[in-house]
Amino acid sequence: MTHVKRTRGQRRERLMLDATALLEEYAEHVWLERHEVRTLAICRMGAKPVKNDGDEAYEVVDEVAI
After folding, report:
1. Residues 6+ away with beta carbon under 8 Å from 45
2. Within a domain: 14
3. 4 — phi, psi (to 5°)?
4. Torsion angle of alpha carbons 22, 24, 26, 28, nearest 10°?
5. Which Gene3D superfamilies does this chain map to (predicted)?
């Protein structure tokens, strides 16, 4: 299940989506080659400024090691 947060005046309840069919549809698709993926992260939309760096980063909501 995938959690989608509603915002901007919508009710503040969680919307859960079942992405199983989508994963099955693209099971054979190659998303990345010649790179090692160590973690998979879900991030909040909108990069935030990083202190004393002048750069921006996305806030990680959850991540898993692969």
Report:
1. 58
2. no
3. -125, 120
4. 170
5. Cyclic phosphodiesterase
How many domains does one find in the chain? 1
Distance from C-alpha of 62 to C-alpha of 66, rounded to nearest angstrom: 13
pLDDT at 16: 77
3-state secondary structure of 24: helix
Residue 9 lies in a domain: no
Q: Which amino acid is at 51?
A: K
Q: What is the pLDDT along the chain (66 residues), one digit of tens a residue?
A: 555 555 666 666 777 788 899 889 999 999 889 999 899 999 998 899 988 878 999 999 999 998
Q: What is the pTM of this model?
A: 0.48
60 inside domain:
yes
